[in-house]
Amino acid sequence: MPLGFTGARLDRADQIRTDAAAFATAVADPRALCLVLDGIDFVPGECGGLRWEPLGDGDDRAPMLLGLDEAGVPHFVREPAPSQRIDARSRTVMRLLPLLSGEEAALYGGARSLVDWHARHRFCAVCGNPSALFRGGWGRKCDSCGSEHFPRVDPVVIMLAECGDRVLVGRQGGFPPGFFSALAGFVEPGESLEEAVARELFEEAGIRVSDVSYVASQPWPFPSSLMIGARAVTDDPALTLDTTEIEAAMWVDRAEVRAALAGDMGAPFMAPPPLAIARYLLEDWAG
Amino acid sequence: MPLGFTGARLDRADQIRTDAAAFATAVADPRALCLVLDGIDFVPGECGGLRWEPLGDGDDRAPMLLGLDEAGVPHFVREPAPSQRIDARSRTVMRLLPLLSGEEAALYGGARSLVDWHARHRFCAVCGNPSALFRGGWGRKCDSCGSEHFPRVDPVVIMLAECGDRVLVGRQGGFPPGFFSALAGFVEPGESLEEAVARELFEEAGIRVSDVSYVASQPWPFPSSLMIGARAVTDDPALTLDTTEIEAAMWVDRAEVRAALAGDMGAPFMAPPPLAIARYLLEDWAG
Predict the structure, then answer these.
(1) Residue B146 — left, alpha, or beta (φ > 0 → left; ψ -120 to 50 → alpha)?
(2) Per-residue pLDDT averaged across B1-11, rounded?
(3) Which residues, 6 or more positions from B184, have their beta carbon under 8 angstroms from its beta carbon?
(4) Looking at the complex, does the CB of residue B151 fall below 8 Å from at least one CB of chain A?
(5) Residue A277 in contact with residue A3, Cβ under 8 Å?
(6) How do the domains of chain B map onto residue ranges?
(7) Tens digits of per-residue pLDDT, A31-87?
(8) Which residues partner with B135 through β-bridges?
(9) Tens of pLDDT along B116-165?
(10) Between residues 1 and 60 of chain A, which touch chain B (CB distance below 8 Å)?
(11) What's phi and psi for A33, nearest 5 deg?
(12) Contact list, A126 vs chain B (CB under 8 Å)
């Protein structure tokens, strides 16, 4: 079972992004397709799946190259219009994701992150003047000061702390009632993944861990995180919660995790949804 | 042997960054220290090591909290002056790094990334108006549109492809003569670490890999990368180089890697320097 938002199969074709003539050829390809979006949400096709339309040329918004399929057909998404209002935090689209295959969800996730980044980076952070799209949509350049800017990917560590035969799950105030998940936090400048895992577990739960080990990763397009799943070990289960970050946390054993994953009514908590790496971490740990 | 730029021991004290009163108390602490920088380069102390001065209050530039030491002494670095010219790509400071302990190099690396980020993000990318420092220096806020911005950490995959008992090393045009390293590239929106490893190896060297496995990570402050080291396996050693990225690449066996790591004159290449995770990957592989 691949992780959520992984498995996109388009060739990103970086060599076309950086070659103006090759990019123009791709745009002019009569087979070229454009992903239909409503803001940054996808619009389901009539039979489910993503909706594509011929790229055509009746739109002022610049096409951005998502990649080529196995037949060489170029797939695009258009830059957001300046007037377009985008709420990057909205996750209403999550309800529609079951209409997509895993491959389509991955493709959509990357396109969503890209469109959202452009919508929030119309101006140059160095000098404040407007910037414009370049490299086939995979960057912006400032005509005023010459600075180049590239889409953000924000690494996040998400981890299960283990103590004996139990792992730590926690919940933020905004979670639906009963839901618990793995703790998580953004990696900061100046730290390794392993250091970020240790810092976050100490900050949020007051535990000191050792033996941090990598488990798996996934992109998370809300708006553009790279989730890096890990495990860590502690020998002291005493918790000191940072209640501004975590509303509650608890140690759970394998039987309890399995019950939660199975959706049992008697389980002590509700598990994260299928697309989330937190669920994968719990499944991986519970065996 | 810890990886380069890891091992900083200050408590980053996020709870102080987000609490104006606690932050003011830390700034007013008579023990508070400020890291002395020349642009974004450190200035060695008289006996080596980083140079610190009392934080004081005779400087218009806002202090940014690096963290607390074990005695609770707050350590700061000041935001860059608007007039300050910073060349984030300059690595002349690399020559001075042997003057620092590993812990100091890690602390400096994080401070350098933070200062550099502020210098290049004085304006709001959403609306183009000036933004101002908040959260104790760990973010900027736009008074005009209310957007919040946080320091970038750019995840980079760096990997050894294995084929039988050999691994792939390559060199970019800008490398010093004879130097080869692991291939590397930025993770893009919409892909996992494992997918980024496979994509980069195909783009740069034309090889298809499977079995991507994580090895280690390090922060890299030029300007603010998170290097994620991995291995991957291929059964076809045929190379197709993207010569815009890679000038040359070759498969090397364990004896050749060991000779390069030992600095032997007869080695077929010169190995990456001690602080780089590429060297760690080669050491780890060569056993």
Answers:
(1) left
(2) 90
(3) B156, B157, B158, B159, B200, B227, B278
(4) yes
(5) yes
(6) 14-113, 154-286
(7) 999 999 999 999 998 888 999 999 987 888 999 999 999 999 999 999 998 877 777
(8) none
(9) 999 999 999 999 999 999 999 999 999 999 999 999 999 999 999 999 99
(10) 3, 5-6, 8, 12, 14-15, 18
(11) -115, 155
(12) 120-123
Say yes or no for a CB contact (<8 Å) between A125 and B127.
no
Residue to test with chain A: of B50, B154, B193, most A Cβ within 10 A: B193
The pLDDT tens digits for A115-159 are: 999 999 999 999 999 999 999 999 999 999 999 999 999 999 999
What CA–CA distance (Å, rounded) separates A134 from A248? 46
Which of B193, B214, B224 is opposite residue A189, by nearest beta carbon?
B224
Residues of A in contact with B219 (CB under 8 A): 189-192
Is the pLDDT at B1 greater than 70, yes or no?
A: no
Count Cβ atoms within 10 A of the Cβ of residue A76 and give its class: 0-12 exposed, 13-18 middle, 19 or more buried: buried
Which residues lie below 8 Å from residue B21, measured CB to CB, with a gap of 6+? none
Picking from B111, B122, B119, B138, the residue whose alpha carbon sits closest to that of residue B43 is B111
**Structure tokens, B168:** 């792939």
ipTM above 0.85, yes or no: yes
Contact A232, A196 (CB under 8 A): no
Give, in degrees to the nearest 5, the angle at Cα B270 between B265 and B273: 125
> How far, in Å, CA of B162 to CA of B148, rounded?
43
How far is A257 from B229, CA to CA, in rounded Å? Answer: 31
Please name the helix (run of DSSP H) or strand (run of DSSP E) that holds residue A173, with its range, or none: none
Note the pLDDT of residue A90. Answer: 74
Query: Which CATH architecture does the domain made up of B154-286 adopt?
Result: Alpha-Beta Complex (3.90)
Bridge partners, residue B50, by sequence: B44
CB A193 within 8 A of CB A187: yes
Q: Which two tokens stand for residue A165?
A: 């035969």
Residue of B113, B129, B192 lying closest to A128 (CB–CB) = B129
Are the CB atoms for A43 and A97 separated by under 8 Å?
no
CA separation for the pair A276, B222 (Å, rounded): 32
Give the C-alpha separation, B164 to B233, whole Å.
Answer: 8
pLDDT of residue A84: 76
CA separation for the pair B52, B45 (Å, rounded)? 8
Q: CB under 8 Å to A260, separation ≥6 — which residues?
A: A180, A252, A267, A268, A269, A270, A271, A282
Q: CB of B254 within 8 Å of any CB in chain A?
A: no
Question: Which residues on chain A are in Cβ contact (under 8 Å) with B150?
Answer: 186
Within 8 A by CB and 6+ apart from B219, the residues are A189, A190, A191, A192, B5, B6, B106, B109, B110, B113, B153, B225, B226, B227
Query: Which amino acid is it at B275?
Result: L
Give the separation between CA B230 and CA B197, rounded to whole angstroms.
8
